[in-house]
Automatic annotation (TrEMBL):
This enzyme catalyzes the hydrolysis of the N-terminal peptide bond of an N-acetylated peptide to generate an N-acetylated amino acid and a peptide with a free N-terminus. It preferentially cleaves off Ac-Ala, Ac-Met and Ac-Ser. Also, involved in the degradation of oxidized and glycated proteins. The keyword Metal-binding does not apply. The lineage of its organism: Bacteria, Pseudomonadati, Bacteroidota, Cytophagia, Cytophagales. Residues 453-659 form the Peptidase S9 prolyl oligopeptidase catalytic domain. Residues 1-20 form the signal peptide. It holds the Pfam family PD40. The keyword rRNA-binding does not apply. GO terms for molecular function: serine-type endopeptidase activity. One of its GO terms (biological process) is proteolysis. This is Acyl-peptide hydrolase. SUPFAM superfamilies: alpha/beta-Hydrolases, DPP6 N-terminal domain-like. Keywords: Acetylation, Hydrolase, Protease, Serine protease, Signal.
Length: 660
């Protein structure tokens, strides 16, 4: 009897295994937003045995996303969750001796974020700082582990929930998404002594200092600041250095009239790597970064990637200081390259149809990356002699039951002859040769690009039975500076030609059903949705998220005052230009496409007025439309239930008009 039970139990186990292996995979559904985790901010321990990082997950019951600190062993065999607080933790940083991990959190009912410390050998986290005023945004350990550089802002909270006094504004730029109305905020560097618990002021005055990086010997700190007469009127940041002691005098290292940022000390402490804008203008929407190296004493920098004509970022020194690793944004990819300090010679070290988003150096010299591809959300990988070794497997549970869309690249020609790079998402169950209802889902930016990375929005729409297309229209990066700059002060022209050119390709090649075309996008993707449906009536449904159309009504309403002033000029001087760019609203009677408008109620990036105006115009004209406003949300919709709701509304709207 006992033997019979064992045999039966074994049969059940093996039977379940067979069932699990043969269970058909299903398409994505909106509720899957609750299952997707987000990995970020990896930090390698000083000894190289562990990698700490944040992993955010959604509690669907509490409708809240929460980030915890995790550790993964460098050999990939162990994964440990260090924190479990419902308040969330971020910015994990190792103490120089490798015994402790610090992080920031407002746990235990704190009203502001503080630094906490946890012994990785075991034990509870303890609160390290007790800042009474200001907001902590960043911090960095001194190499000897005795002090920590703090970045603290002193601005008052202007969020609606905490306003008790009138907000007095006297700045040129006075609005910023998430931050709200901008008052006389200053952000400065401070030194926290771990023994005495004393905080000393390092920088002060009317300017802001950010991005502190300690020199290898711990005597100096490099940082970023804009010391022009009126920083609100430009984006001219420079690299500065200051001795790590109170009352020290800061020294300017770079003098480029554009933007310098991201300082990284060389191993010998004699040089600083950083990135700077290509343009020397004090405003540069359409620009790309160049990898540079300069002496810590200043002088003429070496422009290592000047001739590459691609954005380069995330500089990381090799152990010997002879090279810099960096990320290069190229046509639909982000790859890892190495640049020689001596002559700038570039060697690609990791390429392919993938997207790398972060780099860290292991003590052995090996590189740690955060990487995703069209079928895999971001995970940690070790890059060893050109080969990838996966360290984390957090996304396996999410991916296990899913049948994802296949993703392929294609090139289309626009009416004026421009060559445009695109991505096509085909549903997992798509039958070859059968025309599909198709949605062109347009990226924001505009200086951004769609890459061979995991894209939940397009995968979700494709799972609903649509071919989904990402168009890297002119204005996108990854194709060179001129490709981005060509749309300056000419919005809704060449981008629309590129979108329509991609649509023509899809129809001519039997991919898209010409009677079932849809278009949508968020931010500049929503703006281009408005421009496109005002230019062409072939689309049977549209969804415009966080977009605008009446450009002439946005001056002083959103956060882009520098762009208006420098790209379009003042409305009282160039009103004809503003009117010309407002054609989706002023010619709304040309729009025949049923259009859904969405926006966050508290969006200061692209305020709700833009969506409201277009909704009102179409409602007045009798064109099918609806307006969805997400309460308390900024430009990015972060509320998990609202994220799910948005996907459901996308699918319902497109199904109504494209699947009749």
């Amino acid at each position: 009897m006992k033997k019979s039970f064992i045999l039966t139990f074994t049969a059940l186990i093996f039977g379940f295994g067979t069932y699990a292996q043969t269970t058909p995979k299903r398409p994505l559904k909106p509720s899957d937003v609750y299952r997707l985790q987000t990995l970020s901010d990896p930090q390698i321990s000083p000894g190289g045995k562990w990698v700490a990082y944040t992993l955010s997950s959604v509690d669907s019951v509490k409708n809240k996303r929460n980030a915890d600190i995790w550790m993964n062993s460098w050999d990939g065999k162990e994964s440990i969750q260090l924190t479990y607080s419902p308040d969330g933790e971020s910015q994990p940083r190792w103490s120089p001796d490798g015994k402790y991990l610090s992080f920031t959190s407002s746990r235990n009912g704190l009203t502001s974020s503080q630094i906490w410390l946890i012994d990785v050998r075991g034990g509870e986290a303890r609160q390290l700082t007790d800042l009474k005023k200001g907001s902590l945004s960043d911090y960095a350990w001194a190499p000897d582990g005795k002090k920590i550089a703090l970045v603290i802002s002193n601005d008052p909270d202007t969020s609606k929930s905490k306003m008790t006094k009138p907000i007095v504004i006297d700045r040129f730029k006075f609005k910023q998404d998430v931050e709200g109305y901008l008052t006389k905020k200053t952000t400065h560097l401070y030194l926290y002594d771990l023994v005495t618990k004393k905080i000393d002021t390092l920088t002060k005055g009317i300017y802001n200092e950010t991005s502190p990086k300690w020199s290898p010997d711990g005597t100096q700190i490099a940082f970023v600041s804009n010391h022009t007469t009126d920083p609100d009127r430009n984006a001219n940041t420079d690299i500065w250095i200051i001795d790590a002691k109170p009352n020290a005098i800061m020294k300017q290292v770079t003098t480029w009239t554009g933007r310098d940022s991201g300082p990284e000390w060389s191993p010998d402490g004699k040089q600083i790597a950083y990135v700077r804008s290509t343009s020397s203008d004090n405003y540069f929407m359409y620009d790309q970064t160049i990898l540079c190296v300069v002496s810590k004493d200043g002088g003429e920098p070496k422009l290592l990637s000047k001739t590459l004509d691609r954005p380069v970022g995330s500089p990381l020194w090799t152990k010997d200081g002879a090279f810099l690793h960096a990320l290069v944004t190229d046509d639909r990819t982000r790859y890892v390259a190495q640049f020689a300090i001596a002559d700038g010679k570039m060697t690609k070290t990791l390429t392919g149809n993938r997207s790398v988003s972060a780099l860290e150096r292991h003590p052995s010299g090996t590189i740690l990356t955060v990487m995703s591809d069209p079928q895999t959300p971001s995970e940690l990988y070790a890059l060893e002699s050109g080969n990838l070794r996966r360290l984390t497997t957090h996304q396996e549970a999410f991916l296990a039951p899913l049948a994802l869309a296949t993703v392929e690249g294609f090139t289309s020609k626009s009416k004026d002859g421009a060559s445009v790079s695109n991505l096509l998402y085909r549903p997992a169950n798509a039958v070859k040769g059968v025309k599909l209802p198709t949605i062109l889902f347009i990226h924001g930016g505009p200086v951004a690009q769609d890459e061979f990375s995991f894209d939940l929005s397009r995968q979700m729409l494709s799972a609903a039975g649509y071919a989904v297309v990402a168009v890297n229209y002119r204005g996108s990066n990854g194709r060179g500076l001129e490709y981005s700059k060509i749309i300056s002060a000419d919005w809704g022209n060449k981008e629309v030609l590129d979108i329509l050119g991609a649509t023509d390709y899809l129809v001519q090649n039997g991919i898209a059903d010409p009677e079932k075309l849809g278009i949508g996008g968020w931010s500049y993707g929503g703006i281009l949705t408005n421009y496109t449906i005002a230019s062409d009536t072939r689309f049977k449904a549209a969804s415009s998220g966080a977009g605008v159309a009446m450009i002439s009504s946005l001056y002083g309403v959103d956060q882009y005052i520098l762009q208006y002033e420098n790209e379009l000029g003042s409305p009282w001087k160039n009103f004809d230009k503003y009117v010309a760019l407002s054609y989706p609203f002023l010619k709304a009677d040309r729009i025949k496409t049923p259009t859904q408008f969405m926006v966050g109620e508290s969006d200061f990036n692209v305020p709700s007025v833009g969506s409201e105006q277009m909704y009102q115009a179409l409602r007045s004209l009798g064109t099918p439309t609806e307006l969805i406003i997400y309460p308390g949300q900024f430009h990015g919709i972060t509320n998990p239930s609202f994220q799910k709701d948005r996907f459901e509304r996308y699918i319902k709207w497109f199904n109504t008009y494209l699947k009749k």
